[in-house]
Specification:
By secondary structure, the chain is α+β, with helices and mostly antiparallel strands. It folds into 3 domains: 3-102, 3-Layer(aba) Sandwich (Rossmann fold); 131-200, Dna Ligase, domain 1 (2-Layer Sandwich); 206-459, 2-Layer Sandwich (D-amino Acid Aminotransferase, Chain A, domain 1), CATH 3.30.470.20. The protein has helices spanning 10-22, 62-71, 88-96, 106-113, 115-124, 140-150, 173-191, 250-266, 298-305, 309-317, 397-409, 420-428, 430-433, 441-445, 455-471, and strands at 3-6, 26-31, 46-49, 76-78, 100-101, 154-158, 167-170, 196-200, 206-214, 220-232, 235-241, 272-279, 285-291, 335-342, 354-355, 358-361, 367-371, 378-379, 386-394, 411-414. Strand 6 (154-158) and strand 7 form a beta hairpin. Helix 3 (88-96) runs antiparallel to helix 4, helix 6 (140-150) packs across helix 7 (173-191) and helix 11 (397-409) runs antiparallel to helix 12 (420-428). The termini are far apart.
Length: 474
């Protein structure tokens, strides 16, 4: 029995707590002055106060988290995703106190977390990468030179972080010159690092990723691919597995999965992680980045393969056997979809803080809802607007979609504006139903235009979005 502290909040903290308890460990949850009655505490055996209200005082405060872990005799810490999940300094600080970090070793976090370094590693491993600057560009002039050499359009992109922050499309020299400083400020505010890359922007690509799991005995396994192309502002909102674009192209599936495994082996990877690729319409694929943590969309892979990735991630960190004899033992069945339920306006796709006054569900069989909802929950601008992940599975894609449509109808959240209406329109779209879509789906198909706007709140949401943009240096 180990004492596992969860350095996170919301639905992912609940997910970790359940996995730890299943393995017979003591799940220790954190609560802050912002959330004294957080829902994830119900999934933990013990509760510890993480004093403070801001992220800097709480979930991003390495000395305070390490001190709490020492004080409460913690054996291991799970960071979830976001916050310090991909912070090599945090992993190193814990290791210095003899505390296990439930994630990869610090060197892998640092090397793969820096997009410039990770691209170099991928190139050396023989994995195709998106054309662009060899490393960070230090000035607007250097960025223009790199963009001209790469060929427009290009993407100005933060070397650190993810989630769509610090990314701007530029179609000429003027765009690069005008966007360089603003993109750097946004990246610096989000990740503490304002360095930027220049990458070729591939028009209308597919965003396809491969789930990996490695242990500390040298084994690396893949769990097939996920399609994550439906995005707003480079942030995913709906994912599915297997990819309808890859479909029956087993050669592409095996090649992209093998590339992901090869990259992980190149850095001695030893935890759960996801390798992301951009795939062109000609089916050429390019390494994009690797997320050295559990992903928001991991549930659809669990539903597809029947393997609990969170449990395996904890087992790997503790040096336990994963119980996976070989890669061939991992199989997939059916199709799974995930809709990210966010507190945001479904038309403007802007955060919509509010208070949950009621919550009820009536789901069809084969539905999973990882969430942090309860009557009284106050969603504030301080936290990510994600409040739940709705997952359905069917023997074929059409059945999974049908179940998702029914599940969305059966999800009732009172007092909080959400993007449920947007998901309903996406699922009615003919091209989505046919599996014909790319990362330009929302821009081209415009399902949001079919939703009646809430004019009463539109001005408020725009004001909140402007405040957030100013805070991020946009």
């Amino acid at each position: 029995m180990k004492r596992i502290m969860i350095a996170n909040r919301g639905e992912i903290a609940s997910r970790i707590g359940r996995a730890a308890r299943e393995l017979g460990h003591v799940a220790v949850g954190l609560w802050t002055d912002n959330e004294p009655d957080a829902s994830h505490l119900a999934c933990c055996r013990e509760w510890v106060r993480l004093e403070g209200r801001s992220h800097a005082e709480t979930y991003l405060n390495i000395p305070r988290l390490v001190a709490l872990a020492k004080k409460h005799r913690i054996d291991a810490v799970h960071p979830g995703y976001g916050f310090l999940a991909e912070n090599g300094d945090f992993a190193e600080a814990l290791a210095g106190e003899g505390i296990v970090f439930i994630g990869p070793h610090p060197r892998a976090i640092r090397d793969l977390g820096d997009k410039a370094v990770s691209k170099t590693i991928a190139r050396k491993a023989g994995i195709p990468v998106v054309p662009g600057s060899a490393g960070a560009v230090k000035s607007a002039r250097s960025a223009v030179e790199a963009a001209r050499e790469t060929g427009y359009p290009v993407l100005l992109k933060a070397v650190a972080g993810g989630g769509g922050r610090g990314m701007r499309i530029c179609r000429d020299d003027k765009d690069v010159e005008g966007q360089f400083e603003a993109t750097g400020r946004e990246a610096r505010a989000a990740f503490g690092n304002g360095d930027l890359l220049v990458e070729k922007y591939i028009e209308n690509p597919h965003h396809i990723e491969v789930q990996l799991l490695a242990d500390r005995k040298g084994n690396v396994f893949h769990f097939f691919e996920r399609e994550c192309s439906i995005q707003r502002r480079h942030q995913k909102i709906l994912e599915e597995a297997p990819s309808p674009f890859v479909a029956d192209d087993e050669a592409l599936r095996q090649n992209i999965c093998a590339a992901a495994v090869h990259l992980a082996r190149a850095v001695g990877y030893d935890s759960a992680g996801t390798v992301e690729f951009i795939v062109g319409s000609d089916r050429s694929f390019y390494f994009l980045e690797m997320n050295t943590r559990i992903q928001v969309e991991h549930p659809i892979t669990e539903e597809l393969t029947g393997i609990d990735l969170m449990v395996c991630m904890i087992q790997s960190a503790l040096g336990d056997d994963l119980g996976i004899p070989s890669q061939e033992w991992i199989t997939r069945s059916g199709c799974a979809l995930q809709c990210r339920i966010c507190a945001e306006d479904p038309v403007l796709m802007q955060p919509a803080p509010g208070k949950v006054t009621g919550f009820a569900t009536s789901f069809p069989q084969g539905t999973r809802f990882d969430n942090c909802l309860y009557a009284g929950l106050e969603v504030t601008p301080d936290f990510d607007p994600l409040v739940g992940k709705l997952v359905t599975k069917g023997i074929i894609r059409a059945v999974a979609i049908r179940k998702m449509a029914a599940a969305l109808e059966g999800l009732h959240i009172a007092g909080l504006k959400t993007n449920i209406a947007l998901h309903k329109e996406i699922l009615r779209n003919a091209n989505f139903l046919a599996g014909r879509y790319s990362t330009s789906f929302l821009d081209v198909e415009r399902p949001q235009d079919l939703i009646k706007p809430d004019l009463e709140h539109e001005s408020l949401y725009r004001q909140l979005a402007a405040i957030e943009a100013a805070r991020m240096g946009m």
